Amino acid sequence: MPETSPVYLPPDPLTPERDVTHQHFRPGEHVVILKGTAGGEVWGDAMKVVVPSLHTPTSEDGWRLLDPNGGDRSYVTAHPRYLVHLSKRCPECLLHQKALREYLVKRLGNTEKAVDCHWYSLTALNQVVHIADARPGR
C-alpha cells in the first residue's frame, strides 16, 4: 500500500449502488478494492479471488480473497460490488473505475500523494466492509 495522507470524504455514492452479482468474479482472478487516488488515478488493495464466502456485514454472497502481502489478515471476505477486475479488461469494471476516478479527482484534485478515503474497514471476522454497509455495533 502506498504511503497515504488521511482524508475523510463522505461515503462514495457509486460503490454502494453498484449492481454486480457474485457470478461476475471467478476463483483465480485478480481484483482490486479501490480506496483512493494518487496522481489523478485510483489505487487500492490488489488481491486474488479464492472461494465463495458469505459476506456477513451484508448477509449476501461474497468472495474470500487472498492478500498477496500476507500478514495477520492474509484472507479477507468482500462483497462483489467492492471489487474491480485487474486480470481482465472487463467493461463494467472499467466503467466503475473511471466513474470513481472522476468522482475522486473532482474532490481531491490531481495530487501526487496517495490519498486513502477511509471508506473501508475490517471486522473482527476479517470481513471488508464499506462504510455505507457498516451496521452499528460491528
Q: Unreliable runs, pLDDT <50, ≥5 residues?
A: none
Q: What is the residue-mean pLDDT, rounded to a whole number?
A: 88
**Helix- and strand-based class?**
mainly beta
Q: Encode the helix/strand succession as letters.
A: EEEEEEHEEE
What is the distance, rounded to the nearest whole angstrom, between the alpha carbons of the first and last residues? 25 Å
Percentage of residues in strands: 35-45%
Helical run tally? 1
How would a textbook summarize the main sheet? 7 strands, mixed
The counted number of beta strands is 9
- Rg (CA only): 14 Å
| Helix amount | 10-25%
- What general form does the structure show? globular
General description of the model:
This protein is 13% helix and 36% strand. The protein has one helix spanning 91-108; strands at 4-6, 30-38, 41-55, 60-66, 75-78, 83-85, 114-116, 120-122, 128-130. The longest helix is centred in the last third of the chain and has 18 residues, at 91-108.
